[in-house]
Write a structure and sequence with these properties.
The complex is a heterodimer of chains A (about 725) and B (about 140). With about 725 residues, chain A is of the alpha+beta class. Helices cover about 65% and strands about 10% of the residues of chain A. Chain B has five helices and five strands. The chains are: A alpha+beta (about 725), B alpha/beta (about 140).
Chain lengths: ~725, ~140
């Protein structure tokens, strides 16, 4: 995740930034080339003429590795004036200078072509494969091959021996490629940002390590230690002293650390060698150069490979750790989302979004819902790094671009720092998860993919919330309509009972009026029978009570409220309803048999609804027998507590029974076989039984009539 | 009083109503005999000695209308005044056709009940227009 990936996945973005414009990059290359050539000319062990390091070729290689091949010619052309400027005054004959430029370019071209052909990321050296490709292409093949051309040219122009030229040119260029190109390329493509972002402790460690390497190198190669403790044989092993620092640098800082520490040692070796110090001071200058080069190359090759391996391991470990963290986060989220009861979901949403923010290093995470009707986005929940963020701050997420992506079901980066992942089921999208980072340029395809996976977990929440909302709404709707229906039905059944109720009320009123008028007459009689008068008044009072009871019963029945759930004895409910209907039953000439269980049948329920249930079943049965002969008009109610612990009630009538084709629809609303029926009684009974967690059914009857049974869970305190 | 020896049968299944109306009729000077059911009345041996019957329409078993038709079927011309608590459509016409003298609405007022029984006993016009059961 170090290398910047733009929205289009274009690599080398920060390289492009450094080399922004069409001229800055080539100019920088030319300047570096000139400086490199000057340095190369000076890094020699006089009187030998061979350079120990030759930076210009490596600088060209660096440029070609970093920039697009289409622009190569521009960069090479830019370096030509630098080449001429530096080499014309020095190199004789002058005609050789342009030819040397060609051989320099050929080395860079060979290196860049090979590395670009075989490496998946030519700008990186953090896997063994990438490092080996670089070593083979840029360190071995390019100097070796280009040196054939170079040696031929130089040998032809100066008459020096061909193989001597080749043999001196190859190690100088190989060493330079090896030590200079990786740090240069890494720095250009990503290193600047890496240094800027590195923790302070890391920078301190790097500086301490560099200084320690330099001091050790100066101490041992400058012969200072051996002047203090002159011991024969020690200079030969002095080369080993800086090795631990190089190793630590390679292990701690990867290829760039290895390169930098090798560069420091190379520099010190060259400096001390130029002053006739160091381990190779006893050799002839020309041999000393070769010895320094050989030593550095032999030391650098395994170290560079080692650093690449370490880097690869570190990266793999980091990826693994990151992946594990992600998997843990994902599985925790999924588990919690599945386990938590739906009402608890929204309470924890913000905390969960916060955990996602932590994982993605985001400073803002939003859970969005698509309102399909309005084609608009609403913020379901948000988490933000800043305190006191209001919903108005989320306006930038409500843009058409965000909505369009979510609508299409895509998960993508919207900019360097913003990304959204759509959530939905099938083609139906209903929301998205959006993140915004404080620092731009961080969102990789991996991040987007993980955001998508997290979004899927959150989709579950949204779906469940939506489902719960729908369910609750439907439940409330059903409850309300059931209550309405029950009320209407109660009023209707009241209407059906009006005749008997009028009779029931008229009887005591008749008694009261009769008695009162009789009493008044008695008072006017010559012989006042006080006992008879008292009995008359007592009768008035009794009738008054009777009337009041009836009125109370009607009022209770018509009461609209309800919804209170209490422990109630179903036997009492049956008795209450039966007493209400008794008069009606008498008038309809039918017998109402109650065979109730001797034990109370306690259930949890709404008394108003339960009365309605019994009334509907009894009225249904009474209607069913109305056409039968008076002698055989029977409605019987039985109740019992079953062995399974259910309260069981059956209502049987002696009517004609239920026709086979009607039986399937008998509990459906508006289904009726009666000419004046509304078809609500049994469907209301069914909904009441079901809202009390019971079931109702049409049972097989031994007699011709119908037998309805229902069972409700008992609320008996079990011994 | 002219009705000193007028004998009235009272047929109603409701005991308190029966007691109250019996008391009222006695206060008005009638001799009253009560029956709890239509069957009990029809099986009574004293029908021949009665001058009038005040009968509830809605009763379990034999109803008021059934009682009227049973009497007429037995060629008994005893005047019958029916009383009812609810206004069943066509009841008055039906009662008239069967041969009832009048239909009174419950609750009964003293003046109405006395006037109606007296008229029935005197063989006056059955069911005056203004005696329709009140709704």
């Amino acid at each position: 995740m170090d290398v910047a990936m733009g929205p289009a996945g274009r690599p080398f973005e920060s390289a492009a930034r450094v080399f922004k414009g069409s001229w800055k990059g080539p100019v920088a290359t030319a300047v570096a080339y000139a400086i490199g050539a000057q340095v190369g000319f000076h890094l020699r062990f006089p009187p030998a003429t061979t350079s120990i390091l030759w930076p210009p070729n490596a600088i060209l290689t660096t440029a070609l590795l970093v920039v697009n091949p289409k622009k190569w010619w521009f960069y090479l052309l830019a370096a030509l004036p630098a080449h001429l400027l530096v080499e014309l005054p020095i190199v004789k004959p002058a005609g050789m200078v342009p030819l040397l430029f060609v051989t320099n370019c050929s080395e860079a071209l060979i290196a860049a072509v090979i590395v670009r052909s075989f490496s998946d990321r030519p700008d990186r050296f953090d896997t063994l494969r990438r490092m080996v490709v670089f070593i083979i292409g840029a360190v071995l093949a390019a100097p070796a091959l280009s040196s054939f051309l170079d040696a031929a040219l130089v040998s032809a122009m100066t008459g020096e021996p061909y193989w001597t030229i080749w043999a001196t040119r190859v190690p100088a260029n190989a060493l330079t490629e090896l030590t200079l190109v990786p740090p240069a390329v890494i720095t250009i493509s990503s290193g600047l940002r890496r240094i800027r972002e590195a923790p302070q402790a890391r920078l301190v460690e790097a500086i301490v390590l560099s200084v320690a390497t330099a001091i050790t190198g100066l101490a041992v190669f400058g012969d200072h230690i051996f002047k203090m403790w002159p011991m024969s044989g020690l200079p030969a092993i002095s080369l080993a002293f800086p090795l631990p620092f190089v190793l630590v640098a390679a292990l701690r800082f990867g290829p760039i650390g290895a390169s930098m520490s090798l560069t420091i040692i190379a520099g010190i070796l060259i400096l001390t060698g130029m002053n006739q110090h160091g381990p190779f001071s006893t050799l002839r200058p020309a041999d000393g150069v070769l010895a320094v080069q050989s030593f550095l190359i032999v030391e650098a090759l395994p170290l560079m490979c080692l650093s690449a391996i370490v880097e690869e391991r570190r990266k793999t470990n980091a990826d693994l750790r990151d992946r594990l963290t992600f998997e843990r986060l994902l599985s925790q989220l999924s588990r919690e989302f599945v386990r938590s009861p739906t009402p608890a979901l929204s309470q924890h949403l913000e905390a969960w979004l916060g955990r996602c923010a932590e994982y993605f290093h985001a400073e803002e995470v939003l859970l969005l819902r698509i309102d399909p009707g309005a084609r608009a986005l609403t913020v379901v929940q948000s988490w933000t790094h800043r305190q006191g963020t209001s919903t108005a701050d989320h306006e930038h997420w409500r843009s058409a671009a965000v909505l369009d992506r979510l609508w299409d079901g895509t998960s993508a980066a919207l900019s360097d720092s913003m990304a959204v992942a759509a959530m939905g089921s099938g083609a139906q999208m209903f929301g998205g998860l959006a993140i915004r980072r404080a620092e731009p340029g961080h969102l990789t395809p991996d991040d987007i993919n993980r955001l998508r996976l997290i979004a899927e977990a959150f989709a579950n929440v949204l779906a469940r919330q939506q489902g719960e909302d729908d369910r609750v709404r439907a439940e409330l709707e059903a409850q309300r309509s059931r209550a309405e229906l029950a009320h209407v039905s109660r009023q209707r059944s009241m209407g059906e009972l009006t005749a008997s109720l009028a009779h029931e009320l008229n009887q005591p009123l008749t008694g009261i009026l009769g008695n009162a008028q009789a009493a008044r007459r008695m008072l006017g009689m010559p012989s006042l029978d006080l006992d008879e008068l008292k009995a008359t008044l007592d009768d008035i009072i009794a009738d008054e009570r009777r009337a009041a009871e009836t009125i109370l019963r009607i009022r209770k029945w018509l009461r609209k409220d309800g919804g209170e759930t209490v422990a109630i004895d179903l036997n009492n409910v049956i008795l209450e309803v039966a007493s209400l209907l008794r008069n009606d039953a008498v008038l309809r000439n039918l017998s109402l048999d109650l065979r109730l269980s001797p034990l109370p049948l306690m259930i949890l329920g709404d008394p108003v609804e339960l009365r309605q249930l019994i009334l509907n079943l009894l009225l249904n049965a009474m209607d069913a027998v109305s056409q039968a002969r008076p002698a055989s008009r029977t409605v019987s109610v039985e109740s019992e507590l079953t062995a399974a612990g259910a309260v069981h009630v059956s209502v049987e009538d002696s009517g004609d029974g239920v026709a086979k084709d009607a039986a399937a629809h008998i509990f459906e609303p508006f289904y009726t076989t009666k000419s004046n029926g509304m078809g609500m009684g049994l469907s209301i009974a069914k909904s009441i039984v079901e809202s009390h967690h019971g079931s109702i059914w049409l049972a097989k009857s031994a007699h011709p009539g119908a037998r309805f049974e229902f069972a409700l869970p008992s609320h008996e305190a079990r011994p | 009083m002219t009705r000193r020896h007028t004998r009235v049968a009272l047929v109603d299944d409701d005991e308190s109503v029966r007691r109250a109306l019996a008391r009222l009729l006695r206060c008005a000077g009638y001799d009253v005999e009560t029956f709890a059911t239509g069957e009990a009345f029809l099986g009574s041996s004293s029908i021949a000695a009665l001058d009038c019957a005040l009968v509830d329409v809605r009763m379990p078993g034999e109803t008021g209308l059934g009682l009227v038709s049973a009497l007429r079927g037995a060629h008994i011309t005893l005047p019958v005044v029916l009383m009812t608590g609810d206004a069943e459509a066509g009841l008055v016409e039906k009662a008239q056709r069967l041969g009832a003298s009048a239909v009174l609405a419950k609750p009964l007022s003293y003046a109405d009940v006395v006037a109606t029984i007296d008229a029935a006993v005197a063989g006056g016009a059955p069911v005056p227009a203004n005696r329709k059961p009140a709704r």
